[in-house]
Amino acid sequence: MTEAPGTHNPEFLPTDIPAPQDDGGARHLTGAKLPNIALPTTDGTAINLSKLKGRTVVYVYPRTGVPGVDPPDGWDQIPGARGCTPQSCSFRDNLAELKRLGVAQLYGLSTQDTAYQKEAATRLHLPFAILSDEKLALTRAINLPTFFTAGMTLLKRMALVIDDGVIGKVFYPVFPPDKNAAEVIAWLQRSR
C-alpha cells in the first residue's frame, strides 16, 4: 500500500513492508559495557546508560514520522525502516508488564534531535523518555548498526536489555516492529 502525498499515518503499519535480515551488525553488542556517555532526553535530563543500576530496556528505532508529513522517498522499501511509531506504542502499552518483570528503566533511542523526539513523545503520550544520539556519540562508541537515507544517518531497529551498564541481550533484527515489546517480555519471562 502506498500512501498518497501528505497523508502519511505513522501509526499504520503496512503488511507488505520488507523484513530486515540479520546482517551480523549487532553480534558484538552482547556482553559489551556501555561507555560513559550522557545523552539528552525528551524530559530535559541527560541519561548515562553506563551508570544506571538495575535492568534497563532500550528500544532503538530509525526515526518517528509525523502525521501528514511524507517520509523520505523509498522509506517503506527499506527493510526494517517503517514502524517506529507502532514500536514505541507497543512499549508504551506494555510498560506495566515490563516493570512487573523487573525492568527499572525503559527508554527509546534514535538519532533524531530532542525537539523532534518531543513532538512524538507528547503526541503518543509516552510515559518514558526518548534518548537522542543526534551527535552519534553512543552509536560510534559501540558501533551500533546504521543506515543512511535522505541525508540522515539512522539506527537500525533493535532492543537492548542492559543490566548495570552491560548489554545482556540484543534483539536484532526486529520484525515486525509492533511485536518488539512482546518479544522482550517473552524473553524476560523465560529468563526469570
Shape assignment: globular
Series of secondary-structure elements, N-terminal to C-terminal? EEEHHEHEHEEEEH
Uncertain stretches of 5 or more adjacent residues: none
Structural class: alpha/beta
Count up the helices: 5
Mean pLDDT: 95
SSE diagram, text form:
Blueprint: E1 38-40, E2 46-48, E3 55-60, H1 84-93, H2 95-100, E4 103-110, H3 114-123, E5 130-132, H4 137-142, E6 146-149, E7 152-155, E8 158-163, E9 166-171, H5 180-190
Parallel strand pairs: 3-4, 4-5
Antiparallel strand pairs: 1-2, 3-8, 6-7, 8-9
Verbal overview:
Helix content is 22%, strand content 22%. It is of the alpha/beta class and 192 residues long. β1 (38-40) and β2 (46-48) form a beta hairpin. It is globular.
Task: Provide a short characterization of the protein structure.
The chain is an alpha/beta fold and 192 residues long.
Structure keywords:
192 residues; alpha/beta; five-stranded mixed sheet
